[in-house]
Amino acid sequence: MIEATLCFPLREGGDADEEVLLIEKRRGLGEGWYNGPGGKCEPGETPRECAVRETEEEVGLEVTDLEKAGELTFLLDGEAHTFCHVYRSRSFEGEPTSSEEAYPEWVPVDDVPYDRMWDDDHLWLPGVLEGNTVAGEFRFEGGEPLDEAAFVDHDLEWGVSLESRE
Ligand SMILES: Nc1ncnc2c1[nH]c(=O)n2[C@H]1C[C@H](O)[C@@H](COP(=O)(O)OP(=O)(O)OP(=O)(O)O)O1
């Protein structure tokens, strides 16, 4: 099973609206869709280290004080495919810049483009952006690649305790 991460930097935007940094993915899984910065963990790397590295590589932002916000399991045709650690952070340095992998964009949390994201994101990301914690299982069918499979159903648990976990 693939171990991966997503990181959602947050800031106060204009009119005190909160904004989240999303990326438009330029290649690989989920190409053309919006998501948080993130990607696969490397051997020997903790998920937290992975989220920091991927955010720096993809958008040039140095995030610190990551708060664990979710653990998501994506199943493909009944088999566990990807286990994804989700983080929020309000502490970062630098200005988001485009990379070969991603175009970054600050988006008001009330205006996240769920119609241009993975089909499951609208189920868990609003709660994560509100400060909640979540554990979820999301079932896809139709074979590889995961981003061409059909999202069929899910289970979600809110308010889970994650802080003791990486
Ligand atoms: N269903 C769903 N919703 C939201 N986000 C995701 C999924 N499935 C996923 O895999 N993801 C996330 C988890 C990861 O952050 C990325 C996929 O990983 P990534 O490493 O970016 O994938 P590639 O581009 O193929 O690989 P490398 O860049 O690491 O070579 O999507």
UniProtKB/TrEMBL annotation:
<keyword id="KW-0460">Magnesium</keyword>
<dbReference type="InterPro" id="IPR000086">
    <property type="entry name" value="NUDIX_hydrolase_dom"/>
</dbReference>
<dbReference type="GO" id="GO:0008413">
    <property type="term" value="F:8-oxo-7,8-dihydroguanosine triphosphate pyrophosphatase activity"/>
</dbReference>
<comment type="similarity">
    <text>Belongs to the Nudix hydrolase family.</text>
</comment>
<dbReference type="GO" id="GO:0042262">
    <property type="term" value="P:DNA protection"/>
</dbReference>
<protein>
    <recommendedName>
        <fullName>Oxidized purine nucleoside triphosphate hydrolase</fullName>
        <ecNumber>3.6.1.56</ecNumber>
    </recommendedName>
</protein>
<keyword id="KW-0694">RNA-binding</keyword>
<feature type="domain" description="Nudix hydrolase">
    <location>
        <begin position="1"/>
        <end position="130"/>
    </location>
</feature>
<dbReference type="GO" id="GO:0005737">
    <property type="term" value="C:cytoplasm"/>
</dbReference>
<dbReference type="InterPro" id="IPR003563">
    <property type="entry name" value="8ODP"/>
</dbReference>
<keyword id="KW-0378">Hydrolase</keyword>
<dbReference type="InterPro" id="IPR015797">
    <property type="entry name" value="NUDIX_hydrolase-like_dom_sf"/>
</dbReference>
<dbReference type="GO" id="GO:0046872">
    <property type="term" value="F:metal ion binding"/>
</dbReference>
<keyword id="KW-0479">Metal-binding</keyword>
<comment type="subunit">
    <text>Monomer.</text>
</comment>
<keyword id="KW-0963">Cytoplasm</keyword>
<dbReference type="Pfam" id="PF00293">
    <property type="entry name" value="NUDIX"/>
</dbReference>
<dbReference type="InterPro" id="IPR020476">
    <property type="entry name" value="Nudix_hydrolase"/>
</dbReference>
<dbReference type="GO" id="GO:0003723">
    <property type="term" value="F:RNA binding"/>
</dbReference>
<dbReference type="GO" id="GO:0008828">
    <property type="term" value="F:dATP diphosphatase activity"/>
</dbReference>
<comment type="function">
    <text>Oxidized purine nucleoside triphosphate hydrolase which is a prominent sanitizer of the oxidized nucleotide pool. Catalyzes the hydrolysis of 2-oxo-dATP (2-hydroxy-dATP) into 2-oxo-dAMP. Also has a significant hydrolase activity toward 2-oxo-ATP, 8-oxo-dGTP and 8-oxo-dATP. Through the hydrolysis of oxidized purine nucleoside triphosphates, prevents their incorporation into DNA and the subsequent transversions A:T to C:G and G:C to T:A. Also catalyzes the hydrolysis of methylated purine nucleoside triphosphate preventing their integration into DNA.</text>
</comment>
<dbReference type="InterPro" id="IPR020084">
    <property type="entry name" value="NUDIX_hydrolase_CS"/>
</dbReference>
